[in-house]
Structures are given as C-alpha cells and as structure tokens.
Amino acid sequence: MLIQVKLFATLRRYAGDTSPGQPIPVELPAGATLQDLVELLGIPLQETKIAYVNAKAQELDWVLQPGDEVGIFPPIGGG
Predict the structure, then answer these.
(1) Sequence-separated (6 or more) residues with CB below 8 Å from residue 44
(2) Which among 9, 28, 33, 77 would be 20 to 30 A from 41, CA to CA?
(3) Cα distances (angstroms) measured from residue 34 to each of 42, 61, 78
(4) Domain ranges in the chain?
(5) Can you give the pTM of this predicted structure?
(6) Is the predicted pLDDT of residue 2 greater than 60, yes or no?
(7) What backbone phi and psi angles, to 5 degrees, belong to 35?
C-alpha cells in the first residue's frame, strides 16, 4: 500500500533529498503500523513524539490504510 509521509523539524534528515514540506511516498505491506513506518524510515523510536494520520493524532500501534497521510514530529524543547 502507498502512503504519504511528512517529517517535521529534526526528523527531516530522514527524508532524503525531498524539499521541506514535500510528502514522501512510502510503500508498506498491508497491515503495517505507524511503528513499522518509523522503523522503515530509520527513525529511532525515542525521536518520535507525535504522529498524525489524516490530521488525527494516533499511537504507534495504529494500523495504516492505503492513501493515508502521515505527519511525524520529534520531541521539541523550549523554554
């Protein structure tokens, strides 16, 4: 199944040569979860704070569907 992924902030380094804000098409097997996606992209789990699927926050055990749009954010510090 094909999904679209946007990586934000420091996670952009896992997006390859795509332009900022440009979604990355990713092919996954049926039944794949958000965690499967994160691992496929080579992102350490501790660098994944929030993941959205079709504009709704989801846990890493969420099962993805063809055509889903995923956004992944790292923990962000501030003060």
Answers:
(1) none
(2) 77
(3) 13, 6, 26
(4) 2-55
(5) 0.90
(6) yes
(7) -65, -40
Alpha carbon distances (Å) from 79 to 39, 41, 46, 67: 30, 30, 21, 37
Task: Report the b/e string of 7-20 with b at 16+ CB within 10 A.
Answer: bbeebeebbeeeee
Q: What is the Cα Rg of the chain in Å?
A: 12
Task: Provide the pLDDT for residue 78.
Answer: 54
Assess contact for 14 and 45: CB atoms under 8 A. Answer: no
Asked whether 16 and 24 are in contact (CB, 8 A), the reply is yes
Flag whether pLDDT at 70 surpasses 90: yes
